[in-house]
Design a protein that fits this description.
21% strand, Hypothetical Protein Ychn, Chain: A
Length: 107
């Protein structure tokens, strides 16, 4: 099953819940893709936030880099976060179609 988890609510609790679900599902062999909205960038920039730490560990769970929207804020965030976080992020593919996922969750 392929699952898309969209983190769009700019609160620590919502981003933690969504990212924790992604890591848990990946632990059980599910294909998971995270998509970060620009509203969570403030949380992502805080090194002590749970989201910051969880994004750094995506490769440990065999989760591909989190997708960012194609906007000016996404380009800005790459230069603002440490390299260990920026390597775990990528721009959303141009041919993105949410219908390719079996489930889509939004937090």
């Amino acid at each position: 099953m392929s699952i898309l988890i969209r983190l769009t609510t700019g609160t620590e609790l919502a981003t933690y819940e969504g990212c924790a679900l992604a890591l848990t599902l990946a632990s059980f062999g599910q294909q998971v893709q995270l998509m970060l909205g620009s509203s969570v960038f403030g949380i992502l920039m805080q090194p002590e936030s749970r989201l910051h730490g969880m994004i750094k560990s995506l490769d440990l769970y065999d989760i591909p880099p989190a997708w960012l929207p194609e906007d000016v804020f996404s380009s800005w965030i790459f230069g603002m976060v440490p390299e260990e976080v920026s390597t775990q992020m990528d721009f959303i593919p141009e041919d993105f179609d949410s219908n390719q996922f079996d489930q889509v969750f939004s937090f």
